[in-house]
Amino acid sequence: MTITLNIQNEQLFDKIIWLLSRFKNDGLEIITDIQKNISTPIEQKNKFSDFAGIWKDRDITQESLREQAWK
């Protein structure tokens, strides 16, 4: 039997591994595949800059957006 867990929180991951390791003597096999999705500040800047200028030359204000949202 197999159980697959996808845990995003590193502290929670460590706690679960600690708990499961208590059952190793009972035949439990723990296989971990750690993949961290850590982006560097440069990558984050590039992602944000993809949206630069999307409202250029458009007459959009907070008030006009609110008016449209309540219609």
Question: In words, what does this structure look like?
Answer:
It is a single chain. This protein has 71 residues and is mainly alpha-helical. It has one domain. Helix content is 41%, strand content 0%. The protein is built from 3 helices and no strands. It has helices at residues 10-21, 41-49, 62-69. The longest helix has 12 residues, at 10-21.
Describe the SSE topology.
Elements: H1 10-21, H2 41-49, H3 62-69
Give the SSE string: HHH
Rg, rounded, reads 23 Å
Biggest β-sheet: count, sense, barrel?
none
Described by the principal axes of the CA atoms, the overall outline is elongated
Low-pLDDT stretches: none
Let me know the number of strands: 0
Give me the secondary-structure category: mainly alpha
DSSP helix count? 3
Please state the average pLDDT score: 79
Percent of residues in β-strands: under 5%
Oligomeric composition of the shown chains: single chain
Number of domains: 1
The helix content is: 40-55%
How far is the first residue's CA from the last residue's CA? 53 Å
Task: List key phrases describing it.
single chain, 71 residues, mainly alpha, 3 helices, 0% strand, elongated
In short:
This protein is an all-alpha fold. The chain has helices at 10-21, 41-49, 62-69.
